[in-house]
Amino acid sequence: MFDLPFTELLFRAAEIHRAHHDPAQVELATLLSIKTGGCAEDCGYCSQSVHAESGLKASKLMDVDAVLAAAREAKAAGSQRFCMGAAWREPKDRDMDALCAMVEGVNALGLESCMTLGMLSDLQAERLGTAGLHYYNHNLDTSPENYGAVITTRTWQDRLDTLDRVRDAGIAVCCGGIVGMGETREDRIGFLHALATLPEPPESVPINALVPVPGTVLGDMLKDVPTARIDDIEFVRTVAVARILMPRSVVRLSAGRESMSDSTQALCFLAGANSIFTGDRLLTTGNAGGDRDAALFAKLGLNL
Ligand code: SAM
Ligand code: DTB
Ligand code: SF4
Question: What residue owns the CA closest to ligand 2's atom 11?
Fold first, then answer.
């Protein structure tokens, strides 16, 4: 598929998109970092790792009330899903009561709840499922072959194990990854193939383009080797192949949108992307933001 002429690939992806989704509708999701920085993992892209020198100040888990205040704002701004992210290798059992209260509070606002907290034990997944968590985000990030070049403090199998626990707890899976980390096209193929051949395809597939953060291994690599940045057309191809391989999933145009032109984003929507993160911030980095998104959606006739 990656070798198809670009227009042919896009046409096929758009056809499949139309067969399973309304092509004029794009889901809006809002992110909140509920626990920032100080993470023990060494993910080479991440500003929040203790192994990075990004200058980010670590903070404690937010209060439930403060999280719900942010959720109310997201709801008022038109968001459908509220994603709470924590910079943890895994949650501590003592945090579970507060996390479950956040899930219940977000659901009570009529939002879909999503969390991404790192690895989960069986019991933790079960507790989140019982609290009513709709989605759990846990990315495979890259191909199995490239995984060890990006992260060394956990394995590919660790990721699969948590994904199984999430499924067993009856929580829908949000699983994707990052491109533009200097990986090969083979790696992008291996990454998408791994997602599509999970026991069940993920309900949500976030495709992130690396946001280069100074002081992280991969952010600094991109500064030194600017040619490693993913070409826009190759990024759109990745979205199109994701759409074709996972026809029913929601494909989210995630990090990296801020530095994408309107035209590239429009091509992504044509290729089958049907979700974005709204707002001015992702977890620790900037995002395209409400005004620019509203103008783009009006220009493209989306969500009318
Ligand atoms: N700590 C949890 C974990 O890693 O599973 C949850 C939060 S983590 C920040 C969620 C995802 O954000 C990562 O898996 C990665 O795909 C994405 N991400 C993190 N930093 C990024 C960056 N600089 N550019 C693009 N995507 C990034
Ligand atoms: C995902 O795949 N992308 C989101 C969400 N899952 C949690 C996070 C993007 C983070 C971008 C870097 C930052 O803001 O720190
Ligand atoms: Fe920690 Fe998640 Fe960042 Fe990796 S991506 S360092 S696990 S916060």
Answer: 255
Angstrom distance (rounded) from CA 15 to CA 24: 13
- pLDDT per residue as tens digits for the range 11-66: 999 999 999 999 999 999 999 999 999 999 999 999 999 999 999 999 999 999 99
Write down the pTM of the prediction. Answer: 0.97
Q: Is 20 exposed, middle or buried (0-12, 13-18, 19+ CB in 10 A)?
A: middle
| Ligand 1 center–CA 46 separation, angstroms | 6
Ligand nearest, relative to CA of residue 84: 2
Question: Strand 81-86 vs strand 27-35: parallel, antiparallel, or unpaired?
Answer: parallel
The answer to whether residues 99 and 70 touch, using CB atoms and an 8 Å cutoff, is no
CB atoms within 10 A of CB 259: 13
Determine whether the shortest distance from the Cβ of 67 to ligand 2 is under 6 A: no
Residues 109-146: pLDDT tens digits?
999 999 999 999 999 999 999 999 999 999 999 999 99
Does the annotation mark 175 as catalytic? no
CB 139 within 8 A of CB 176: yes
The SS3 assignment for 117 reads coil
**Integer Cα distance of 11 and 15 in angstroms:** 6
User: DSSP letter at 144?
Assistant: T
Residue 169's CB: how many other CB atoms inside 10 A? 19
Whether 44 and 68 have beta carbons less than 8 Å apart is answered as: no
Residue with tokens 């992130």: 208
Q: Which residues contact 278 (CB under 8 A, 6 or more apart)?
A: 28, 29, 30, 74, 77, 78, 79, 287, 290, 293
Q: Are strands 81-86 and 275-277 parallel, antiparallel or unpaired?
A: unpaired
Under 8 Å CB-to-CB from 35, ≥6 apart: which residues? 59, 60, 61, 62, 85, 86, 87, 88
The crossing angle, in degrees rounded to 10, of helices 6-20 and 262-270 is 60
